[in-house]
Amino acid sequence: MNKKITLTAQTLRRADLEGISKSGDIALLEDCDLSEMNLSEIDLSGWHFARCRLARTSFNGARIDETSFTACRAAGASFTGSNLQEAVIEGGDFSNTNFRGATLTHTKITNCKMTGSDFTEAKTLGLSIESVLLVLAVLPRLSFRKMTLKEVDFSEADLRGCDFRDTVFEDCSLRDAHLPECRFEGADLRNADLGGIKLTNAQFQGGANFKTPSS
């Protein structure tokens, strides 16, 4: 029977975590330092990282299904090509993190900082984001269709080609975002900060709702 192993306030090596993974056990890591570690291609499904230091750690190609990251400091980490299906990222700092080509199906991201993070070619079906700072993030051609976005800051983000049809923005910001080829038909932008954006642009036509300067 697989065990649950708790590791607290430890500086670990790849071999330590690889051994746990190969045994099929599930680990709870609390306040551990994994900074700059190479954890690529390891199966970390179902693990829990709480308040861990993950700066510049590589999870490239790793399996992270149903894994949770709570209040972790992961600036500059890389999840390129990793599988984060049904994973949870709650709190913490994931600034300048690389999610290029990652699978984020039914992943939940809340209350965290992702300034400058790169989601190019990420698979985001069922992605849920709330209270996330995505200033200067790179999110080209992602679909947010029919989602309700709450307290998401896309200021100066690269959103070219994104699908926002029928999306509801609640206390969000698109200030100075890069929006060519975006679609906003049926979107509710009445509670979004659209500073620096020309509301006469074609992508805002076709039924989008937004505050006018006189309203």
Number of helices: 1
Number of strands: 10
- Read across the widest sheet, the strand sequence of neighbours is 1-2-3-4-5-6-7
Low-confidence runs = none
Computed structural class:
mainly beta
Helix and strand sequence: EHEEEEEEEEE
- C-alpha Rg (nearest Å): 19 Å
Helical content (DSSP H or I, runs of 4+)? under 10%
Percentage of residues in strands: 15-25%
Whole-Å distance between the termini? 63 Å
Shape: elongated
User: Mind summarizing the main beta sheet?
Assistant: 7 strands, parallel
* Average pLDDT over all residues: 92
Account of the protein in words:
The chain is built from one helix and ten strands, in the order βαβββββββββ. Helix 1 links the parallel strand 1 and strand 2. By secondary structure, it is mainly beta. Strands 1-2-3-4-5-6-7 form a seven-stranded parallel sheet, covered by helices on one side. The protein is 5% helix and 21% strand. The model has no long low-confidence stretch (mean pLDDT 92).
Key structural traits:
215 residues, mainly beta, seven-stranded parallel beta sheet, single chain, three-stranded parallel beta sheet, 1 helix
